[in-house]
Sequence to fold (183 residues):
Amino acid sequence: PKIYAIRGPAGVGKTTVLNMIVGLRAADNAYIKVNERVLTDTQSSVNVKIQERHLGYLFQDYQLFPNMTVFQNITFMAQPSEHITALMHQLNISYLQKQFPARLSGGKAQRVALARALSRRPDLLLLDVQFSSLDDATKEESMRLVKRLFDEWQIPIIFVTHSNYEAEQFADEIITLSSVPAE
Fold:
């Protein structure tokens, strides 16, 4: 497995690509395959349901449910288990499980959202511009954390970024999107 960065200017379609992979947005013409499993093939009318894709998606604004505790957010799509307990410990958020999202810093909210994305042991992890809104120290810590999870879990990661630095420091391969005027 590898870590892939999708980089490009704002509005070029980086998030749209992730949304197509995860199944939140229909593609006009696409073939999407993860771990030998076809998720989308517009030519053959294949479109696997979102909940059956086994993907983890960390949204740009984390999308934590404000009326649920940290623990409830993490277990929203997964049953409480030893895996969840170990994951919370690994991400250093066990002590936050009874807190509500409004009381969390940006870095803590990100780790909670990451735990939720990993709660079902996904085949692929998608990160949408996850480091851009964090201060430098938290950004470096978050990048190290995701890299450590990648090394331990051996799960492919695709992340989108505006930052050449993040792409070059973090990714094994970089995909650059650019806007091309229609002819």
Q: What stands out?
A: The mean pLDDT is 91. The chain has six helices and eight strands. The chain has one domain: 3-176.
